[in-house]
């Protein structure tokens, strides 16, 4: 929330708590955090929540429309890029879309890679969760920063996600870790991060962002099982690097059986936008182009809701 309380989600909701009552209000907000509830329900129900990486307003609209059409909960995810590009504008649009939706939707930041961007994002108001990705620091520093930033986020009613180990590869808008050493998550390491107070854990068990080597995903389910046995009672497990080119129904269902309750969707949604742009740009009015892009992304999100089995879960 900004200093005058008029520019954040709390401001738009008409909450005008002064500083004296704001810490109690924030503790309440954390307890009733909608993103936490959505993902907890998925873990208990054996399905996963699509967390859709959005780069445009159309993607935000497409995610909400898909969720309402499929009666599925969902998460709108923004990269730090969205904040660097548009300050709070896209974030507050996402938060308002989530507030007004007829199904449960949360707003989450994916891969916040510096303490500065975490604090800036948390202060803007509008995020229900933030992923603290300090994986490019050495482990001691990673843990120290994670602990500090969990406290900062929680004090603002925001839950946190972290990545012990390192998930390699590149996503549009985040630093490429492809040339760094891949570090798989051990149960001991998972424990150390859980002790920092995180809510969601993104294990590295052979998953990578973007393109897999020719042999495809070589996932260490034995390791994932050990991590889950160690910490699964205290955190929810979330999956990065599950591109639909590699993760079809059988492999995804296996991930769900191992407790994955949130799955990031990035490339396929962005590709739908780009495809329509290539086909129709200059041939139809701009308003038509924007609407067609929204429709195309909605179809991709809906397809993912079906195979993550979140379809219909908003009403159950
Ligand atoms: Zn990721």
Automatic annotation (TrEMBL):
Binds 2 Zn(2+) ions per subunit. One is catalytic and the other provides a structural contribution. It is an enzyme of class 4 (lyase). Residues 1-24 are annotated as: Disordered. It comes from Sporothrix bragantina. Its EC number is 4.1.2.13. Its cofactor is Zn(2+). It comes from the Eukaryota. Catalyzes the aldol condensation of dihydroxyacetone phosphate (DHAP or glycerone-phosphate) with glyceraldehyde 3-phosphate (G3P) to form fructose 1,6-bisphosphate (FBP) in gluconeogenesis and the reverse reaction in glycolysis. Keywords: Glycolysis, Lyase, Metal-binding, Zinc. Pathway: Carbohydrate degradation; glycolysis; D-glyceraldehyde 3-phosphate and glycerone phosphate from D-glucose: step 4/4. Belongs to the class II fructose-bisphosphate aldolase family. This is Fructose-bisphosphate aldolase. It catalyses: beta-D-fructose 1,6-bisphosphate = D-glyceraldehyde 3-phosphate + dihydroxyacetone phosphate. The lineage of its organism: Eukaryota, Fungi, Dikarya, Ascomycota, Pezizomycotina. InterPro entries: Aldolase_TIM, Class_II_FBP_aldolase, FBA_II.
């Amino acid at each position: 929330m900004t200093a005058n309380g008029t520019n954040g989600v709390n401001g738009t909701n008409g909450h005008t708590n002064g500083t004296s009552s704001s810490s109690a209000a924030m503790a309440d907000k954390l307890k009733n955090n909608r993103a936490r509830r959505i993902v907890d329900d998925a873990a208990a129900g054996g399905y996963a929540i699509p967390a859709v990486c959005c780069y445009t307003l159309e993607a935000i609209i497409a995610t909400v429309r898909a969720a309402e059409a499929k009666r599925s909960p969902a998460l709108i995810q923004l990269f730090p890029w969205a904040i660097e590009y548009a300050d709070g504008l896209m974030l507050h649009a996402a938060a308002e879309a989530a507030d007004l939706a007829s199904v449960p939707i949360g707003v989450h930041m994916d891969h916040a890679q510096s303490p500065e961007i975490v604090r800036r994002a948390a202060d803007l108001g509008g995020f229900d969760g933030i992923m603290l990705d300090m994986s490019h620091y050495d482990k001691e520093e990673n843990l120290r920063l994670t602990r500090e930033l969990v406290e900062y986020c929680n004090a603002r009613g925001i839950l946190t996600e972290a990545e012990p180990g390192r998930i390699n590869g590149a996503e549009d808008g985040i630093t490429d870790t492809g040339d760094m050493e891949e570090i798989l998550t051990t149960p001991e390491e998972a424990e150390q991060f859980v002790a920092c107070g995180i809510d969601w854990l993104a294990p590295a068990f052979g998953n990578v962002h973007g393109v897999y080597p020719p042999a495809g995903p070589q996932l260490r389910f034995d390791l994932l099982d050990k991590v889950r046995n160690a910490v699964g009672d205290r955190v929810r497990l979330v999956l990065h690097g599950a591109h639909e080119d590699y993760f079809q129904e059988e492999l995804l269902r296996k991930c769900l059986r191992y407790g994955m309750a949130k799955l990031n969707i990035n490339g396929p949604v962005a590709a739908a936008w780009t495809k329509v742009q290539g086909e129709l740009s200059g041939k139809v009015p701009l308003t038509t182009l924007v609407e067609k892009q929204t429709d195309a992304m909605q179809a991709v999100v809906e397809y993912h809701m079906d195979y993550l089995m979140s379809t219909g879960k908003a009403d159950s």
